[in-house]
Amino acid sequence: MPHDAQPPRHHPETARHPHRPAPPPYPRDYLMPWQSSPPAPPRHPTPAPASTPAPGHHGDLRRLRTAYRLLRRVSTLTALGYFIAFLLLSGYAPTLMTSPVGDGGLTAGLLLGLCQLPVTLAAVAVYEWTARRTVDPLSAGLRARAGHPHTPRTAPAGDGGTRTGR
Q1: What letter would DSSP give residue 105?
Q2: How far apart are CA 45 and CA 158, in angstroms?
Q3: Of 111, 93, 92, which is closest to residue 102 (Cα–Cα)?
Q4: In terms of C-beta distances under 8 Å and separation of at least 24 residues, what long-range contacts does 56-61 make, across chains too?
Q5: Phi, psi for 23 (deg, rounded to 5)
Q6: 134, 143 in Cβ contact below 8 A?
Q7: Rounded Cα distance, 123 and 131, in Å
Q8: pLDDT one-digit tens code per residue, 111-153
Q9: In angstroms, rounded to a whole number, what is the distance separating the alpha carbons of residues 55 and 59?
């Protein structure tokens, strides 16, 4: 040992908690050159009350994930399903797609192509309506239970679920 003839000290605190660093080899009231005052004593966190479980352990969180997953799948399959059906019909049923509809020279393929935008907009509208009816109340309940400061106030269920907090 170069300048220190004492063997390293083994602290009982280090033996109980191997993940904690060893205490410094100098007295606790010793100030380093960059310190102007002694460090504050370590605070021990107060344990959470045992009566209230964490929000992640509620069945509501599972219901929220399930409702949101179902909502995403239905809306995605509606919009993409219509588009894929249009592509498949264009590739494998050209006679059906070129058949005239009405007297104005409109073909079935053109009519189905023009209907893609309204179908997509309808899928978005149904997505928003269903989200406000099913997913938003579940997430607002979880936020309120967790004590989130930005919990939106919602109107009573009898008026269509419109928000009054905006």
Answers
A1: T
A2: 44
A3: 111
A4: 58/142, 58/145, 60/138, 60/141, 60/142, 60/145, 61/142
A5: -65, 155
A6: no
A7: 12
A8: 999 999 999 999 899 899 999 998 898 888 888 877 766 655 5
A9: 9
